[in-house]
Structure formats: structure tokens, C-alpha cells
């Protein structure tokens, strides 16, 4: 099998003003006999969402290459990074709140009486707060008329381009100043505070890192898609905060889901990862554990 690419020069006038001139631009093409107008159409599509007023290509050269084996395709060249804590019976997510109870509904032993000889199952029951382990808060967590877990579209939860903000070892609060030069529009903004180092210890909830009200407002104003933190709460939960929750209040009012208790954010590059945290679609429910993870482009294999 051969793959075909076109290499060409191009002159493009954009709808909103401005011009692009390209030399040696390359595009994948469906077959070896594409016409210049087909290449022009492919170029216009590749430039979306920019709208093109006029485009012309010249000096077209067709390149044929052997089709790469399946394991080598773009889609497969990613590395997965685990960003969630393990949930175990009785564990403490937030000190002072009850941990999950995990019990059998049907044991393997008891199931032998239900199924054919040699066929057995375990059916398990869990009783827990929605805010257990690494979880996602829907707008409904804060607002009775906000989207609940069943109402969040996958576009807000899966495959989001991520930007990782390093805030390890400084002040507890992540401030608007620290985000001033970060491009957040349409991105999962992941706050790497190092708060997860104390996960599972009595100190996890004490003087923990958080997002300030000003920073939350900046993320709303600039259109962040989702906000995550590797700490006990996106808000300051110390006595100083007197029960106020400005980050939840602002982000969830804007329909921006919040993920708390992330871990392992140090493994992510500042840009280039894609973030996923999908809860089950429980109607009338506000928060639920997620398998939060990122995919990162894998390093090219050595030549
Ligand atoms: N978002 C609410 C509730 C909350 O954080 C929460 C509720 C139940 C169990 C654990 C919680 N927080 C941290 O794990 C708050 O900020 O207090």
C-alpha cells in the first residue's frame, strides 16, 4: 500500500483580512491523480476554522510513500498518563467525611448455585459519597438548575486539550497573576500544586492549595473548558474561608466542570496533553468518581 502526499506552494487570502504564502506545504491526499482544484479544496479544509476568500496552489509535486504499519499510525502513537487515585473500602477522601463501603451483593461462592457448573461471578455493591476519590463536580453540585452528571456532553469531558499550570511550592493560592499569560480558552486547565503528596494523610485537607476567586473569574472570562486540581478542593476550605466557595460558585455558574483530587500532574507536559475525566450519566446527581487520564504524544521511536 502507498500513501500519497502533495507538496506545493500556495497563496491564500483570508476572509477576515490577511494573507498566507506557503512554500513546500504538504498535505495528505486520497490518491495519486488529484487535481489542483482538489488540493486547493483540501488546503481550505485544513485551514479551518480560518475562512478563506481565495486560494491558489502552484508547483504541485506528488509524493508516494509506503503505508506505515497499523501500530505506527498517528492515532496509536500516544502514551497514557494515569491521573486518578485508587478507591478502596473505608479510605478517606476528605478528612471528616465517611469513606466508601464495599460489600458483595453476590459472592463467587453463592453464585455457583445460580449459574451452570464452572461458571461463577462476583457482583459487588458500593455505598459512597459522590465526592469520593478523584471526582468531577457538575454544575448541579452548586446550582439546582445546573447541568447534572447526565446532562454534561462528552465534548466538555473527553479529549480536551490541556494546559498544565505549575504552582508547586509557592503560596497556597493559585492567583489570577499566575494565570495571566496562560492560554486557557477551550482547554482543560490543570493546576499542578503538589497537594497530592499528602493524599491519604491527616494533613491532606490542612492548609491545602486552592484557586483564588480572582483566578476563577479569569478562567470564566477567558473560556476555560474544565478546571482540575491535585488537591483536596478547588476552593480554600480552611477556617479563613468561612465556608465561602468562590471557585465552585464562579466556575460552576459558567458551566465549567471541576475535577478535584487529581494526582500525577507532574508527569504531564505544560502543553500537548489531552485530558479526559468522564463520570457515569447519573441523573439528579452532582459529583462522581472519574477515571481521569491524559494522553501525551509518544516520543518517536529511535530511527
Ligand atoms: N464542593 C463542596 C463539597 C465537597 O468538597 C465534598 C463533599 C463531600 C465529600 C467530599 C468533599 N470534598 C472533598 O473531597 C465543598 O467545597 O465543600
From TrEMBL:
Pfam families for the chain: Cyclase
Record-linked InterPro entries: KFase/CYL (IPR007325), KFase_sf (IPR037175)
One GO biological process term: L-tryptophan catabolic process to kynurenine
Molecular function GO labels: arylformamidase activity
Highest rank taxon of the organism: Bacteria
Matching PANTHER family: CYCLASE-LIKE PROTEIN 2
Listed name of the protein: Kynurenine formamidase
Amino acid at each position: 500500500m502507498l500513501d500519497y502526499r502533495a507538496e506545493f506552494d500556495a497563496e491564500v487570502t483570508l476572509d477576515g483580512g490577511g494573507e498566507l504564502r506557503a512554500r513546500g506545504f504538504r498535505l495528505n491526499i486520497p490518491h495519486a491523480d488529484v487535481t489542483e482544484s482538489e488540493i486547493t479544496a483540501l488546503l481550505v479544509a485544513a485551514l479551518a476554522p480560518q475562512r478563506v476568500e481565495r486560494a491558489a496552489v502552484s508547483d504541485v509535486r506528488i509524493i508516494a510513500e509506503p503505508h506505515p504499519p497499523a501500530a505506527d499510525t498517528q492515532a496509536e502513537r500516544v502514551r497514557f498518563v494515569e491521573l486518578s487515585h485508587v478507591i478502596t473500602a473505608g479510605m478517606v477522601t476528605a478528612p471528616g467525611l465517611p469513606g466508601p463501603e464495599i460489600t458483595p451483593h453476590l459472592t463467587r461462592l453463592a453464585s455457583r448455585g445460580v449459574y451452570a457448573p464452572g461458571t461463577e461471578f462476583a457482583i459487588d455493591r458500593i455505598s459512597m459519597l459522590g465526592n469520593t476519590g478523584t471526582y468531577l463536580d457538575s454544575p448541579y453540585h452548586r446550582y439546582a438548575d445546573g447541568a447534572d452528571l447526565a446532562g454534561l456532553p462528552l465534548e466538555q469531558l473527553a479529549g480536551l486539550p490541556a494546559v498544565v499550570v505549575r504552582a508547586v511550592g509557592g503560596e497556597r493560592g493559585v492567583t489570577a497573576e499566575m494565570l495571566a499569560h496562560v492560554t486557557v480558552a477551550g482547554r482543560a486547565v490543570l493546576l499542578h500544586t503538589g497537594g497530592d503528596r499528602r493524599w491519604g494523610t491527616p494533613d491532606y485537607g490542612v492548609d491545602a492549595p486552592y484557586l483564588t476567586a480572582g483566578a476563577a473569574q479569569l478562567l470564566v472570562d477567558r473560556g476555560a473548558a474544565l478546571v482540575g486540581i491535585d488537591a483536596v478542593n478547588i476552593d480554600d476550605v480552611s477556617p479563613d474561608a468561612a465556608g465561602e466557595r468562590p471557585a465552585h460558585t464562579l466556575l460552576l455558574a459558567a458551566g465549567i466542570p471541576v475535577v478535584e483530587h487529581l494526582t500525577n500532574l507532574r508527569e504531564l507536559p505544560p502543553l500537548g496533553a489531552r485530558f479526559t475525566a468522564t463520570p457515569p450519566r447519573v441523573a439528579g446527581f452532582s459529583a462522581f468518581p472519574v477515571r481521569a487520564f491524559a494522553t501525551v504524544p509518544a516520543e518517536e521511536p529511535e530511527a
